[in-house]
Write a structure and sequence with these properties.
Helices cover about 40% and strands about 20% of the residues. It contains three helices and seven strands; from the N terminus they run βααββββββα. The protein starts with 9 loop residues before the first strand and ends with a helix.
């Protein structure tokens, strides 16, 4: 079987597919930075462990908000999450799990469900990819690409 021809390769970063409006992110970022700074300033006048713990929680929150607003993954140490479809195959990776890769030349049949896709390979093996983590727009785009591939199988 020849490799299917796709209009363009598709890459979806599962961690950054949901975007918030810029004004809300900036306002929340300002709050997330001002809250721990003011809390630590008040902590200098009267020290207590509860205040220190709360200040640390505010600081971690500020880091998460800052990294999210700059469109970086705040939990990057936990691994990447993505879905990639190209002319060679499909590759799906979620955080620390091992990437699931299916090459089109190995596929015998494919079944597309509402939130998943099942592949039956030529060696009798079955692989399934869960698509529930995709946004609605990304899910429609992935299904369209998979229908293109299915038509060429």
């Amino acid at each position: 079987m020849n490799a299917p021809t796709l209009s363009a390769p598709l890459y979806i970063n599962l961690l950054s597919q949901f975007h918030h409006p810029r004004k809300i992110r900036r306002l929340y970022l300002a709050f997330a930075i001002l809250a721990p700074v003011s809390y630590f300033a008040l902590l200098l006048f009267e020290f207590s462990w509860i205040s220190f713990v709360m200040g640390s929680i505010f600081t971690v929150n500020a880091y998460v908000i800052y990294s999210s607003s700059s469109e970086k993954d705040p939990l990057g140490v936990l691994g990447k999450s993505y879905l990639r479809i190209n002319e060679q195959g499909i590759k799906y990776k979620v955080r620390r799990q091992r990437a699931l890769e299916v090459l089109w030349q190995e596929v015998q049949s494919m079944q597309l469900h509402l939130f998943s896709v099942d592949f039956e390979l030529k060696n009798g093996q079955r692989k399934s990819i869960n698509l529930e983590q995709l946004s609605d727009e990304s899910l429609q785009l992935v299904k369209e690409r998979l229908r293109q591939v299915h038509a060429q199988l």
